[in-house]
Design a protein that fits this description.
Blueprint: H1 13-22, E1 32-34, E2 41-45, E3 48-58, H2 70-86, E4 91-101, H3 107-124, E5 127-135, E6 141-150, E7 166-170, H4 175-192, H5 204-211, H6 217-225, E8 232-235, H7 240-251, E9 254-258, H8 266-274, H9 279-285, E10 292-296, H10 301-305, E11 310-317, E12 323-326, E13 332-334
Parallel strand pairs: 4-5, 9-12
Antiparallel strand pairs: 1-2, 2-3, 3-6, 4-6, 7-10, 7-11, 8-10, 9-11, 12-13
Helix pairs in contact: 2-3, 4-5, 4-8
């Protein structure tokens, strides 16, 4: 441990820490075409590009086993990796699975966990090709590396957005966050009364969104069939605002998105009202949606508007115009990256 002046990690934050640690990395191998800075690395082997991404999930930080079934956890752990590959406009092909677990887990527990991973892989035609297992003194840790592929001309990065491009998003936003709030509330009730039985009637969609997200292969396929290649793309894991800021920063642009165009499911709206929470704030900053956020040229507006499951929510602007949310009354509010932050006290 460092003995001199110490800088708290919280001072930089998660993304600041990554940038700080990787800013001086130089790629030494010609096959390493694109490294840190996007949803997946890009490797060039014999013409076709190989995509590589890794996600680390920690008990108590990314998931709570009080209300997360191990089968669902395995499914989600795989899906969040697939989502990164789809966000590059690629196709996931293989994964390796590494886990650290304590003595409180048994073989049957791990069978449940792997059943979820296997189901996710079967649905997306992905092979499990390796991994590692070790002991843990602090809880369950999951590290999955996903390998995908794409043609060089198909890959979409975060840095390609241009002025006047349309900002589009798949599916709906905020449901996973409201599902998390619901589960946390019921956990609190259970801790006070172990006999209490939760009533989730009418809230099934919210639970599915937080416990069993789906990587949007269908959207990638829809865009491909329509002959539309996004100019930039990212998946929404940390919240719409945070992800859109990534695109704007790496593309050196501004943006305008419109509050009344944010796609929100009815159950999300009802739950936000029940919790007395601002619905737009939940949609902008909730995270864990794993929808695709992307930009397309303005000239493709008529085509994109016809595609099911995709909503145009705004447009890219020149950087000097800032990054703004236009409220329902026309007021412009500066967007802030207030999504979920992994590194906390």
């Amino acid at each position: 441990m460092h003995k001199g002046n110490r800088t708290d990690i919280a001072r930089l934050g998660e993304f600041g820490l990554i940038k700080h640690l990787t800013k001086d990395i130089e790629l030494l191998n010609k096959e390493s075409e694109y490294g840190v800075g996007d949803d997946a690395a890009v490797l060039n082997f014999a013409g076709k590009r190989t995509l590589v991404t890794t996600d680390l999930l920690m008990e108590g930080v990314h998931f709570d086993l009080v209300y997360t079934p191990l089968r669902h956890l395995g499914y989600k752990a795989a899906m969040v990796n697939f989502s990164d590959i789809y966000a590059m406009n690629g196709r996931p092909k293989q994964i390796t699975v590494s886990i650290a677990l304590s003595k409180r887990f048994c073989i049957e527990d791990m069978e449940e966990f792997y059943a979820g991973i296997k189901l996710a892989c079967a649905r997306h035609q992905v092979d499990i090709v390796g991994g590692d297992t070790t002991a843990s003194l602090t809880g369950l840790a999951i590290s999955i590396t996903c390998i995908g592929e794409a043609e060089e001309t198909d890959i979409v990065y975060r840095n390609g957005a241009k002025d006047t491009d349309l900002i589009c998003v798949s599916g709906d936003l905020g449901a996973a966050y409201m599902g998390l709030q619901l589960m946390e509330r019921e956990k609190s009730v259970f801790q006070d009364d172990a006999q209490a039985q939760p009533d989730f009637a009418g809230k099934e969609y919210l639970l599915e969104r937080i416990l069993k997200p789906e990587a949007r292969r269908d959207i990638v396929e829809t865009l491909h069939k329509a002959g539309i290649k996004p100019t930039s793309m990212i998946d929404i894991s940390d919240g719409l605002s945070s992800e859109l800021m990534h695109i704007c920063t790496q593309s050196n642009t501004g943006c305008r998105i419109y509050e009344d165009r944010l796609p929100i499911d009815y159950q999300t709206a009802v739950m936000a009202e029940e919790f007395n929470m601002n619905l737009s704030t939940c949609a902008l900053n909730g995270g864990d949606d794993y929808e695709l956020l992307f930009t397309v040229p303005l000239t493709r507006h008529e085509e994109i508007a016809k595609l099911e499951g995709i909503r145009v929510i705004g447009h890219i602007t020149k950087p000097e115009l800032g990054r703004m949310l236009v409220s329902r009354d026309g007021t412009e509010l500066e967007l802030k990256a207030q999504g979920w932050v992994a590194l906390q006290d």
